[in-house]
Write a structure and sequence with these properties.
The complex is a heterotrimer of chains A (95), B (366) and C (472). Chain A has one domain: Ubiquitin-like (UB roll) (Roll), CATH 3.10.20. Chain A is built from one helix and eight strands. In chain A, the strands form three sheets. Chain A has a three-stranded mixed sheet, with helices on one face. With 366 residues, chain B is of the alpha+beta class. In chain B, helix 1 runs parallel beside helix 6, helix 1 packs parallel to helix 9 and helix 3 packs across helix 9. Chain B contains ten helices and 21 strands. The longest helix of chain B has 17 residues. Helix content of chain B is 29%, strand content 28%. In chain B, strand 11 and strand 12 form a beta hairpin. Chain B has two domains: 166 residues, 3-Layer(bba) Sandwich (FAD/NAD(P)-binding domain), CATH 3.50.50.60; 181 residues, D-Amino Acid Oxidase, Chain A, domain 2, CATH 3.30.9.10. Classes of the chains: A mainly beta (95), B alpha+beta (366), C alpha/beta (472). Chains B and C meet through helix 4, helix 6, helix 8 and strand 19 of B and helix 11, strand 23 and helix 13 of C.
Chain lengths: 95, 366, 472
Amino acid sequence: MIRLVPDHSARIQRSEKVPFTFDGVALMGCADENLAAALMQAGVLHLRNAPGDGAPRGAFCMMGLCQECVVFVDGQSVESCRLTVSPGLAVKSRR
Amino acid sequence: MSENHDIAIIGGGIMGCAAALRLASGGMAPIVLDRGDLGQGASGVNAGTLSLQIKRVRLMPYALKGHEEWARMGDAVGFRRTGGYTLAFTEREAELLTERQTLKAEAGAPIEFVTNNQVLSAEPNLTRRVLAASYCHEDGYANSSLTGQYYRGRLREASVPYRERCAVTSITRDTQGFVLHTGGPPIKARRILLAAGAWLKPVAAMLGVDLPVNARINTVSVTERMPPLFATVIGHATGLLTMKQKGNGTILIGGGWQGRGTPQEGRGEVIADSLIPNLSLAQFALPKLGQARVLRSWTGFEANVPDFYPLAGELPGVPDAFVLGCVRGGYTIGPYIGRLMGDFILGHSPEMPLFNPGRDFEKDAT
Amino acid sequence: MRDIVDISIVGAGPAGATAALVVGQTECRSLLIDEQRQAGGQVWRAKDRSILSAPATPESRSGDNLRERLAASGVSQMTDTRVWQIERQGEHWVIHTLRNGTAGRLYSRAVILATGAREEAQPVRGWTTPGVIGLAGATALFKQSIRLPGRASVVAGTGPLVFFVASEIRRLGGTVAAVVTPNTRADWLARLPSMMARPDLLWRGGRWVADLMLASVPIYWGHAVKSVSGDDRVIGVTLCRLATDGTPLPGDIGIAADSVCLGGGLAPSIEAAQLAGVAVRYRPDLGGWVSEAESDGSTAREGLFLAGDSCGIRGAVAAELHGQIVARTALRHIGQASASDPALERAYRRASRFGEAMTALSVLRADPIGLATPDTVVCRCESLTRRAIEDEIESGAVSSNAVKSGQRAGMGPCGGKYCQSSVARLIALQENRALSEIAPPTPRPPIRPVPVSALAGDFDYGDLPMPKPAPL
C-alpha cells in the first residue's frame, strides 16, 4: 500500500531499559524517558483516583498543567509528566 | 422608573446580609446591593477561623454569641467545632500567650493552658518544639467560600431582593429618603445601611462623611489534598498563624500576613515577602506541611479603624443612615452583630451595646 | 547585592526564544526562563535523553535549529524552572522561580511574557478515563518521548492539529482507529484563501489527509466524540454527527479503541500576565480570553511586554516574528536604540492571517458544552458534574467566581484551567448572557503548584520577620 507518511518506528533508538517501580510493582523503562510516557508504555494508565467519585484518572495534558498524572516520589507530589525514569525510581500513587 | 425600599444596604457581606435578614424578619423591606458578588469580599476570602483565642478581650461576649450563630448555620457553611491549640515556641511568645489567654479566659472564653505533652498526644504531627500552649474546645472553623452561596439562599428564602455587580456611584437625598445611583435605574430607600467593609470610606464619602477606615490586606493560602495530618485549629501566640485541615484534606493557612493593594483598585496582590514567612511559620508548627504543595494564595481586605473596634450605629450627621463594619474578628462576630444592627434599626434595644461610629477614635487607639 | 537583569523572558517557545535571540545581540543582560528542560516550547519540544536517534521532523528540525542558535548566541538560559509569581517592587519586576525544589527570585528591569497556550477541552462522558489525553498532550508525547498513546487511537478535535496527531501516530507505527473533527470539508474550503499565504503548510496538511485516506482511516467530518467508554482504561468511543449549528444529531457510531486524543483548540495562557496586572478581553477568534497588549507587545504595566500566543492564538510562525518585534519594544524601553522593522511587521501580519485562519478552524464549532450530559464531569479536579454546576448557577451563583466559591470549580490543583470555559459557557446558557460578560475567575498565585518546603526552605525560627502581634 502507498504511504505518504512513512513508518519510522523501526528507526528510533532508545536508551537502555532500567528497573523502576509503581506502587511496588516492578517495571522497566528507558533511562531518562519521561515518566508519564514510560508508565503509559508499561501499560500503567490509572495513576490516581479522583476525589469525590473515586474514579480512575491518568495523564491528560502531558505538559504540567492538569495535575491528573500526579504521583508521589519520596513523599512529595510531582507531575509524572515532568519527571524522568531513573534506575530504582520508586513511584507511589494514592490509588 | 425607580424602586422604593424601607432600607438599602450597601455591601452584601456577612454583616449586610445578616442585618437584612433581621430587618426583613422585623417587618422592614430591605434591599442588598453589592459591587461584586455576595460574600466575595472579606466575608468570603478569609481563612474561616472561628477561634476565641484570637478574639479581642472586649469583643469576647460578641464572639461567644457569634460561635452560637455559626453552630446554628452548621453544614450549610461548613461549620466544624474541632477545638483549637495556640502554640508558643519561645519564652517571649510563652509570656505573651499566658498574659493574653488569661485575660481572654477571664472575659468568658473557655480557654485552658495545656502541657506540650498534651498537645503532642492530641496532635502528634506538630513540632516537638512547643514551649507553651493553650486550648479552647469552642474553636473551629467554617468555610468562608460558602458565604455567598449561603446568604444568597437565605435572602431568596426571606424574599429579600439583592443586586450583584451593582456598584453605587453616588447617593443623593429626596423628600422620601435616599436615592442610590447605579448603572441601572436609581434605587430609592427611606434608610440606608453602609456595610461595605473595606469600601466603607468611599461609600461614606458619598454622604459627605469621612470615616477613618483603613484596610488590612490579609494573605491566605491553601494546599492540595493531603492525608489527615491534624484535626484541630492551630494558632500561634502572636496570632500570626491560623491553620486547619478541611474534611477534603486541603490545609488552609492564614495569620494576617500583609499583601499589597487597595480596595479602591479592587486588586490585592500576594507578596512573596509575606507569603514565605507565613508558610515557614506554618511548616515550623507542622513539619509535614513541607510536602504539601500550595495551590492558591490570595488576599482579602479587612477594614478597621484606628482603635480596632467596630463601627456599629448611626452614621454621624446623616439622619436615617447607619454604618456597620470594621469588626476585628468580623467573620466570627459578623452574623451576630448584623442581627444586633437590625434590631437597632428596627427601633428595638439590642441585646448588647453597639459601637458609636461618631466616637473619638484616637482616644482608645493602641 | 541584588543581581538585576535588563530583560527577562518567560517562556522559551517560538516567541520567547526568538525574543531572547534579538536581545542577545545587544549588550544588555537577558535571561530566558522555561519550565521544560530545553527550549522549544510546546511546538518545538525537545526529545527526552532516552531517545538516542530518531528521524527528523519539521518540528524537531525547527527546535534543534532554535536550540543551536540559542547555544551559539550565549543567551543565558534557566530551564527546568517554573515561574510561580511575578510582582512589581519599586523600579523592578521580581520573578519568583522554582527550580529543583528550591524557590528563587530574579530582579529584572523589563519582562517579556511568552507563556504560549494551553489546550481547551470539551467535556463528554468518560473523558476522564485513563487513556484519554489531550491532542496537544499527544503531540508532547510524540515530540518528547516518541511514544504512542495506545495501540488503536481515536483522534478527535478541531483545526489542523487533529490531522497532525493522526499522521504522527501513523508515522510512529501506530493505528488510527478514526479521525473525528467537528470541522466540515466546507469549513476548510472557506479558509483556503487565507491558507494560500503558506502553501508549504497547506501542502503538508494535504499529505496528512491523503495518507489517512489511502490507509482507509475513517475520517468523520462534522462529527464529535459524544462519550468514551471504559472503566480504568478506554475501550471505545461513541460519535455523533453535528448539525450546522453544532448540536448533536441522532444516530450514534461506536468505535473500538484503547486510547483517545481529544482536543478543543488552544487558549492563550494569560495567568502570569493577569497576576502582573494585565487586563484581559474576550476574543473568541483568537482563542478566548486574551491579555490586553498592543501589537508591539507593550501593556498597561510599565516594563511588562507580551509576545506570542498569550496575546491571541496565531501559531508558531507568527509567534516567532512577534517575539522579534516585542524584543525591540522591550529594548527601547530599557533605553537601547532599536528601530522598528517594517518588513518584520509586514511578515508578522502575513503570518498572523494564516494563524488566525487556523485558529478560526480550531474554535469549536460544536457547542463546547453541548455534548456533556448532566452527569458528565466538567471540573476534573473536583469531579464536579454539569448538573452540580448548573444547580449552583440556578441557586444564584452567576459569575465564575461565585461558582468557584460555591462548588470549588477552579479551586483544585489545575486552578480552573480545564473547567473555566465550560463553567462560563454554562452560566451564559442559563443566564442568557454573552460569554464576553463572564470573566474568568480571579487568578491566584502560584501560577504552578509549589511545595511548601520549597518556599520555606531552611530557616532559623528566630530569623522569621514576625510583625507586631494583633491588638489585644
